[in-house]
């Protein structure tokens, strides 16, 4: 059996079509898109074509509502810090959740520590879902921004974003969602959702690393977080990463074309994987919700009284790639803040493994992984 990659939530492989469209922008159409000469104009045209393609993937009406960034982390930082600073004269209270990605949580901590903002962290239920009524109860007169992730990167929980955004708008509050894990797996329509700001990252849907985007609804003001030139309509300074933007555009086009097919396949694989796990193991627990409230490709499972790092090490010896959760927090010995937030029992919290599936995965790979897992878990239990 070849290497098996079950860590698509961390990053996805770049598809061949994306690599092909990127290549000319390294040594043929390489001019700075901000330059006024003809080569620069050609580069600028390619950049705007890519912007249009990404815009279509998220259902935005106007391409100028999309700001290219260096990835999801920068998009989150621009959304949180940019919106907070732009509206600070109206209030300094922000609401987010206890299970956000660290790009959001640490941006909030920065605003709290250095700029005097107050942050409210909403609790979640045992499936990681936010209660809309809980948001209503925590809104204050000085609340200016709400940031709730569309889907959780660790346990796959999909939030009721449309309802949460509606509550924010009823109170004249800007609403941001980190949709990095969602884009490419679920249909996104920013206008139907009613969000003001939405973060995405190309490498989560088979595009290149180092490129992302922030949707900024028309009329929403941001204070730029990169000082310099007037690129991206004065919202993000710096020379455009043209080749990566073109690659992101192509990946967005492919993702939109294959969205329904990919979602259906991943749901079938996910549900098959979960059923096989419960058929072959005792003392396990699925972390996160079931069915439609869970990302199609996400399986987060805990093995009772076992250590996830030991399991991952043994999986790696069998050429199987999985993770304990967020790749951005790998190397940290602390327990996942997401698993703490859903009040996972102590005997399960250290044995959590995330398998995240992609379009190229198969049932045969799942069978192989389950078989190897049986040997690994039996051996680890025998050592206790």
From TrEMBL:
Enzyme Commission numbers on file: 2.8.1.7
Needed co-factor(s): pyridoxal 5'-phosphate
Domain Aminotransferase class V: 4-369
PROSITE patterns listed in its UniProt record: AA_TRANSFER_CLASS_5, EF_HAND_1
Keyword tags: Iron, Iron-sulfur, Metal-binding, Pyridoxal phosphate, Transferase
Species whose genome carries this gene: Halanaerobium saccharolyticum subsp. saccharolyticum DSM 6643
Reaction(s) catalysed (UniProt annotation): (sulfur carrier)-H + L-cysteine = (sulfur carrier)-SH + L-alanine
Record GO terms (molecular function): cysteine desulfurase activity; iron-sulfur cluster binding; metal ion binding
Entry's family note: Belongs to the class-V pyridoxal-phosphate-dependent aminotransferase family. NifS/IscS subfamily.
SUPFAM superfamilies: PLP-dependent transferases (SSF53383)
Protein name, as recorded: cysteine desulfurase
NCBIfam families registered for this protein in UniProt: PRK02948.1 (NF002806)
